[in-house]
Amino acid sequence: GLRDFYSLIKMLYWMCEKSNRPPTGPQLEHAIKRNFGGLDSLKTYEIFKNHLGKLDTQPDLSNASTEEREILTPDCTPLGLIKTSLSTKEITWHGENRYLLFLTENYAALQVLKHYLNEVVGLSSNVPISAGLEEEMGEESVRRRKMEPFVLFGSSFPKDREYTQVCRNINQIKICMETGRTVILLNLENLYESLYDLLNQYYIVLGGTRYVDLGLQTHRVKCRVHNDFKLILIAEKGTVYEKFPTPLINRLEKHFVLTETVLLDWQKEVLIRLEEWVKQFSNVAE
Fold it and tell me: Helix, strand or coil for residue 193?
């Protein structure tokens, strides 16, 4: 959709501003996969590649520093895309990320995300933060990054779909928004309509603080949004394709997250060998 395209242009602008160079092939690949991912039947990167020959061009890194190498050749692997999408604005180089939608099977993405939020991005209290980054971020921001993500899991029981329960859920999200705590939502389709302004990142800035409206039927509640706040939706791939409205999907950065996504190359080779061994072991000789 147009929102994905606008987000692609904004991301490329931030990359070019940071590197002070035209976009490189890896930067284009990274931005395309970040903003047009999650489309199982449409290979968007291949479509862009057919029209943009520059996607195969590698930049000259002979005199580039470590930071410049990271900016000019961002990680385009599934793990690299997930890690970058979960990074906060303070430690990334392409501006503010959109909120996230992770398409998964059997909710395997939940454990994957909790691992990356806790161990890689640095939301766990036992993850060291460099002195320079801690001084730059400030003590309060560092404390918020060490918070565990808040997981809100919905259900199809009638009591969980009543208006009073929706109000409770909105209030819990509101508290996380104000404190900068990451929120992970699962199976809460009846709640997403109340979050459209938030998903639009339609902020009102007053005195250096961001505010956004949350909807409760005909009521609107203005809430403060901390700079570290992140909203993550996890949903079954089939549910997203069949039940999610297109405007909701277009507002989010989409990624496929399966159990094998977290495996390294050598672990994938071991998995293939194990699967072959199980097939051979389970075959009954006639």
Answer: helix
Is there a contact between 179 and 144 (Cβ–Cβ < 8 Å)?
A: yes
**DSSP, res 110:** H
Cβ atoms of 90 and 141 closer than 8 Å:
yes
pLDDT in tens, 131-162: 444 454 455 554 545 577 888 888 778 777 78
> Is the CB of residue 229 less than 8 Å from the CB of residue 201?
no
Cα–Cα dist 172/195, whole Å: 13
Query: Chain-centre distance of CA 156, in angstroms?
Result: 26
C-alpha 134/C-alpha 106 separation (Å) is 37
DSSP structural state of residue 59:
P
pTM for the whole thing?
A: 0.78
In this prediction, residue 64 carries a pLDDT of 74
pLDDT at 136: 47
CB atoms within 10 A of CB 211: 14
What's the CA gap between 5 and 82, in Å, rounded?
Answer: 19
Structure-block tokens of residue 187? 């199976």
Tokens of 130: 């460099």
Q: What is the 3-state secondary structure (H, E, C) of 4-20?
A: HHHHHHHHHHHHHHHHC
pLDDT of residue 143: 52
Give CA–CA dist 124/188, Å, rounded.
26
DSSP assignment letter at 222: E
Q: Which long-range contacts (CB under 8 A, 24 or more apart) does 262-266 make?
A: 262/79, 262/112, 262/115
123 by DSSP, 3-state: which?
coil
